[in-house]
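Lab notes, practical 5.
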Amino acid sequence: MSADSLGPAWAMDWMERARAAVSANRIELLDLDRAIGDGDHGENMDRGFTAVAAKLTTLAPQSAAEVLKTAATTLMSTVGGAAGPLYGTAFLRASKAGDGALGNTVDAAGVASLLEAAVEGIQARGKAEQGEKTMVDAWLPAAQAARAAADEGRGPVEALRAAADAAAQGAVDTEPLIATKGRASYLGRRSVGHRDPGAQSSSLLLLAAAEAAEAQ
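Output from the prediction step:
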């Protein structure tokens, strides 16, 4: 696969790396969620991406969009709480962006479109805006960074690395915020000083996407 485009092999590797990352960071995600949420985010994400990886072993996908759609439907059916619908919607919207406009491979503009579609899905489902201490605080800057990279003429690998870096910073930046959405909002000012678990898991997933692209 050319560095100018990414295909189903990249998406498959992304999901496998996502599974490994979530598994390796399960305890961290649990601890973050115990501080300001229900305390089950790590278990839910681990279960969901283990199921995604298992499902994908039965497929021979022809496009990245097919991989993302499979991930979406699997997450919706296996992840409990708010994370399943939110991540499922994100990947479903991303899959439609790829399948509808980008063909079988994804260039830098396609990366940006996938991430923008994911953000739109998350916001449509969760009704959250940037700065409210949610996963939007990782996904939105990631999509913006990817679009900026594409507009600068950089390739999809660089666009994904920019997105991953922006998501990582976005997750860190949730720590001083007051949560105004979801379970964490019940804590009010007591949520200050804690990183949002959804933003952190989002950062892990986007780092997995970048590392999969860099390995192509």
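Observations recorded by the TA: The radius of gyration is 16 Å. The first helix runs from residue 8 to 24.
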